[in-house]
Write a structure and sequence with these properties.
It is built from 6 helices and no strands. By secondary structure, it is mainly alpha-helical. α1 packs across α4 (76-95) and α4 packs across α6 (119-142). The two termini are 28 Å apart.
Amino acid sequence: MANLVQPATRYDPLPVIDLAARSERERLSPSALKAFFSIVDRWSVRDEDARQLLGGVTNGPYYAMKKSPEGRVLDADRLLRISYLIGIFKALNILHGQPLADDWVRLPNTNRIFAGSTPLAYMMKGGAPAMQTVRRLLDARRGGM
């Protein structure tokens, strides 16, 4: 079997972000929270459901983050969850017009992954792994698979 040679690229690989490093989490957290609250607003997600998407944040910290995202430092799990949601949001807006892109997570879905439920309910129940699955599904659709 011949050696497979990867094609050359003119782009340098992006460095892996170390979410264990507090300095990285401090840098990313305010903008991640702003993006999160913007997305859940566009998707018309109730605060109770948004708290669940973040991994079960209680009322006090949730509303403090919502009111003032600056100076907040999220843990790696919450940053990962928000990253998945940003990717899902982006993919939906590439695949669909704005009204459907914003409604999609709240619509019952016949895909066997969701079993007739909504993608939002699936992600709330399954947490980060379910968010990863939804993101991969939408990325595959974007790629024509």
